Amino acid sequence: MPLLASEPEFNRRYVTMLSLMVLVFVLFSGRLYCLQVTHGEEHEALSRANFVDVRRDVALRGMIFDRNGRLLADNRPSFNLYFTPAYCKREAFETTLTRLTEYVSLRILEIDRIKDVFETTKRLDRWLPLLVRRKLSREELAAVEQNLGRLEGVEIRPETRRAYPLGKFAAHLLGYVGEISRFELDRLVDDNYRQGDIIGKSGLEVAWENVLRGENGELHVVVDSRKQRVPEKLAAQVLKQLEPVVPATAGDNLVLSIDARLQALAEERFPGIEGAVVAVEPSTGFILTMMSKPAFDPSEISGRIQARDWQELIRDPDKPLTNRATQQQFPPGSTFKPFTGFAALATEDWDENTRQLCTGRIHFGGHVFRCWRHGGHGDLALHRAITQSCDVYFYRAGYAAGQDMLARVSQDFGFGSATGFDAGQEVPGIMPDRDWYKKHTRTGFLPGFTISNSIGQGDVNVTPLQLALAYATIANGGTLYRPQVVIRIESPTGKVVRTFSPQARRQVKVPEEQLKIMAEALAGVVNEPGGTGYYRRPRKVEFQVAGKTGTAQVVKQGEERGKGLPYDFRDHAWFAAWAPVDNPKIAVAVVNEHGGHGSSGAAPIAMELITYYLEQIEKETVLPEGDGS
To answer: Which residues make Cβ contacts (< 8 Å) with residue 520, sequence separation at least 6?
Structure first.
C-alpha cells in the first residue's frame, strides 16, 4: 500500500479542502455583513445600552395657586431608592438586603416586595427598576450613597415629589396624590400610566388630573456597570453622540378663586372640633373659602404611605379625610325655614301676612312637636316667624304646603342633588318627596314626616356647600349657580390657557317679590331686636348682614334639651348668611358639629369672615369675568 496518495486522490482532497475554506469564508463574511450592515444599528444600540440608561422622564405636576398668586401646591426635590434585580447576583442578594435594611430601616412590606421581585421576575423584566422608598431622609441618603459599592442592584434617583407648603391648609379642597393602584392602572390602561406613577387621589388633584399631570418623556442617563451615574464631563461626551430624546412637559397650573387669607382665618378661628365653612360669591358661584375640620396634611400621605398609618387615618372616628363641606350631609335645622316659607307661599291659601298662634307646641298624630321657646311666640306672620325662628309657624306652613311642594321648591334651590362642584366628590343630600318614602321606608309616607322636615329635621339632609349656594340664590335674586373653584388654567410659563366664567344652573321658580320678602326677613334676623342673630351682628361697619341661625338635633331631646349630653349627642350649630344685604358680595354657611346653638356656635365665625372679607379683601381684589369658555 503506497504511503502517498495518488495524484487524482490528492487533487480531490485538495478541492474538498479548498471548498470547505471557501464555504467558511463565505459564512464568516455573511455573518460579518449581517452584524455590521444589516443589524449594525441594532447592535450599536445594544452596545450603547451598556452605559446609557434610557429612563422615563416623569413630568412635573402643575402647581396650584390662590387667586392672588399664593402657592398652595408645588413640587420639591426628592431622592428615591430603587432596586434592579438584573444587577444583583443571587449569591449577593441576602447580603445586599441585610445591609440595605440597616441603612434605611426597610419595613416588612418593602422587604417582601424586593424579595418577590427578585425571585419571581424573569427575562427582560429583571431589568426594570423597582421603586423601594420615596423621599429618603438626609441620614438615609448619606448612608446609602456611602455604601453603594456594597449594594448590588441598588441606586438612588433624584426625582420630584408633590408638596403642600402650607401643611393642612385647604387640605380637603386641594386633595392629595398617591401611587397608582392596580385598579387605576387597569382603568387607565390607554392613558400612558405605569406602575409606580403618582396620580391624584382626592380633591382638585384628582378632579383636574388631566390638566395637572403633564406629559412624560425620556431621559438619557450615562451610568457605569453598577447603574450609577458617571461624572458629568464624561456623560456629556457620550450624550453628544446620541439622538436627542423627547423631554417631559410639565402640567398646567391651576389658579383658584379662594383667597388664602380668608381661608386661613376660617381655619384658625373655627370654634369647634368638627365642622365646615363654605363661602361663595353670590353673583358668580365661585368659591371664596372651603374649610373642613379636622384636616390632614397632604404632604404626609402623598406618595406612598405606610399601611399602618393609612389604616389609622381611615379608621379615625373623626373622619379627617372626609370633606365635610361636600361629602357629609347634615340636618340643616332652622336654616331650612326660608325654603319651607317659599313652599307655603307657593300655595293659594298662604301669603306673607298669614298669621299663626304659637303657644310653644302643637299636637299632631299623638305626638307633641315643641317650639324652641317654651312659652311660645304668640301671634305672628312670616317676617317675625323668620326673625325669631318660630318652629310652630313652620310646622303649620310646611303641613299646609305638603311634602311634595316642600320637596319641589327645595329641590329647585339645589337640595337633594349634587351641585356639580368642579372639585368633585360630593354627596347629594336628601330632600324627600312622597315617592322617596315609598322607596326608602317600610311605612311609606306619613303626614307627621312633613312636620319634622319643615324645620330642617326629620329626613332632610344638606351639605354646607348646598346651603351656601341656596342662600346665595336668595341674595342674588334667584339664580342658582354651579359652584366653581378654578378661575383659570395657566401654562408652566404663566401664559393663560383657559379662563372660566360663571355657570348658572337655573333661575328658581320663586317670584321676585317673594325673594325680596324673604331677604328682608333674613336681614331682620341679624339687625332687628329679638332676631336670633341680633347679638352677633357686626358692630361699627358700613354694611348689614342677612342670615339665619340653626340648631339641628342629633338625637331626640325633651324640654331639657342639650343639658349634660355626651359630645356625640349634642346639637349641630348652623349659620347661613350673606352681605351686604342689598349688594351681596359674599355668602357663608357654617356648620359646627355638636356645637350647640347656631347663634353662639356658628354665627360668630361667619360674622368675622364676612367682616374681614368686606373690609380687608373685597375692595382690593375682583374675580375675573372669564372669556366665556
So the answer is: 383
Beta-strand (E) ranges in 164-272?
177-179, 198-200, 217-222, 253-256
Q: Grade residue 618 by pLDDT with cuts at 50, 70 and 90.
A: confident
3-state secondary structure 438-474: HHHCCCCCCHHHHHHHCCCCCCCEECHHHHHHHHHHH
Q: Distances from the Cα of 443 to the Cαs of 365, 440, 451, 474, 555, in angstroms?
A: 15, 9, 16, 35, 21
Strands 64-65 and 253-256: parallel
Angle value at C-alpha 270, between 264 and 272, nearest 5 degrees:
150
Q: What is the mean pLDDT of the chain?
A: 88
Query: Is the separation of the CB atoms in 600 and 298 below 8 Å?
Result: no
Rounded to 5 degrees, φ, ψ at 261 are -70, -45
CA 473, CA 480: separation in Å to the nearest integer?
Answer: 5
- Which set of grid coordinates corresponds to residue 369? 312637636
Please say whether the beta carbons of 504 and 317 come within 8 A. no
Residue labelled with grid coordinates 317676617: 383
pLDDT of residue 265: 97
Query: Which of 512, 584, 531 lies closest to 383 in space, CA to CA?
Result: 531
Q: How far apart are CA 94 and CA 78, in angstroms?
A: 27
pLDDT at 364: 93
Q: Which three cell numbers stand for residue 513?
A: 317679590
Length of the chain measured in residues: 629
Joined together, the cell numbers standing for residue 111 give: 422587604
List pLDDT tens digits, range 511-547. 999 999 999 999 999 999 999 999 999 988 889 999 9
pLDDT higher than threshold 90 for residue 97: yes
Choose the weakest-confidence range: 18-22, 212-216, 294-298. 18-22
- The active-site residue, picked from 334, 452, 454, 599, is 334
Q: pLDDT-based confidence at 501, cuts 50/70/90?
A: very high
- Give the chain's largest Cα–Cα span: 147
What's the rounded Cα separation, in Å, for the pair 92 and 76? 34
DSSP string for residues in 511-561: -HHHHHHHHHHHHHHHHSTT-TTGGGSPSS-SS--EEEEEEE-SS---TTT
Active site residue 417: no
CB of 51 within 8 A of CB of 245?
no
Per the CB < 8 A criterion, the answer to whether 180 and 196 are in contact is yes
* C-alpha distance from residue 142 to each of 103, 139, 272 (Å): 9, 5, 44
Tell me whether the omega of the peptide bond preceding residue 8 falls within 30 degrees of 0, making it cis: no
As a dihedral over the C-alpha atoms of residue 608, residue 333, residue 401, residue 479, rounded to 10 degrees, the angle is 30
Place of cell 337633594: 416
Distance CA 265, CA 611 (A): 11
pTM of the predicted model as reported, rounded to 2 decimal places = 0.83
Fill in the DSSP letter of residue 55: E
- Residue 123, number of CB atoms within 10 A of its CB: 7
The answer to whether 261 and 613 are in contact (CB under 8 A) is no
Q: Reduced to 3 states, what is the DSSP secondary structure of residue 38? A: helix
Asked if residue 172 has pLDDT above 90, the reply is yes
Q: Give 347's DSSP letter.
A: S
